[in-house]
Amino acid sequence: MWQTLVNAFRDKDIRKKIFITFALLLVFRIGCYIPLPGLDVNTLQNGVNSENQLLSVLNMISGGSLQNGTLFALGVLPYINSFIIMQLLTLIIPPLERLSKQGDEGRKKITQITRYVAIVLAVVQSIGIIVTYDKQGGIVATLGSKWVSYIVVSLLLTSGSAFVMWLAEKITEYGITNGSSMIIFVGIISTFGTSLINAFTTVSSNLNNLWFIFGYLALVVVLFALIVFVDGAARNIPVSYAGQVKGNKIYNRQTSNIPIKVNGSGVMPIIFASSFLMFPQIIVSFFQGSSFEQFYTRYLGVGTAVYYVFMFLFIIFFSYFYAQIQFNPIDVARNLQQYGGTIRGIRPGKPTSEYLAKVNNKITLCGALFLAFIAIIPTFLFQLLGKDIGLNNAFSATSMLIVVSVALELNKQLESQIMMRHYKGFWK
Fold first, then answer.
1. Which of 284, 320, 315 is nearest to 299 (CA)?
2. Residue pLDDT, tens place only, 106-120
């Protein structure tokens, strides 16, 4: 990966894209430190550092903006939720499905609708965040009254979320890789770095905390290795292409493979599942103090057994959802038949598509179970090792998967752009 970065910086155009990405991410980090009026930061930090799992997860994704009550406290979460909703509605509503099949023009219209939905979700989520802030005692009537503070903070949070959405789109358009993923990546890394520094400060008062830190970091390294190993795993289906028949022999017969990755959908199922489950929690926060809110938080909220069950089911669902989008067995079988390719022991046409669908479903199930394992099981180990040193909410297995997936995707994007430059140079 380091060699890829070196090669990327040698190319003028790729180097320009890298600097644009860094500049836009720097703007995002600066916005994470712009305070909002009418908020008591100390009270908010105590609330996030408490046992409120929802605030901890949202704070980690936003790069610490939530606990500091800053302009980008919502981050890119409303845009992700809007993207999920539009992806699902495209499969259900015929007009949206027709738009998705109209090429670039149709995709532009869907993107515009996604932005509008994201703004609406940002308004709803900003109100939920304000209600949560108020419960923590973090709203201060510095603007005349609390209601004025509510309105101003809500408008600023919505504006900040819209600006982050714009930054993500510009990173995708002019930068190296997907902007939303990079913003989440930077937020997680910054939160973990700050928490790790704070953890080392506790060693002076208790030397045993050093062993907890080493154990925590060792678990991180092991999970990193496991995630990288599974990310590169794939099932290769051998394909033979017909050659020229001369007499009793076949000449120029070629063989190839159809790779089906174990974790072809990457981290998106976990991001979608987490966002999908967080949104109802934010809506429930509107009813702070009510018996319904207490019941939901106790039995259905973030960190409960029911929450992890739904997390498991949603990860399985979104894994298959993305697998169907990325790999179409019917199209692959049609292309193989068109170019004279066959899978050994499988007849061309419908039998080939059925065989590919069967293999893809099995591989997707393995990848989905892995994602569910990574998202749920190691989280308890992180809580156990990091509780005494303040790292229990700094990193999670889900955030690790996001970090690794984004880093690997960034490396692949750089390699592909470097390869493209080499091809252009060859043709010139």
1. 284
2. 888 888 898 999 999
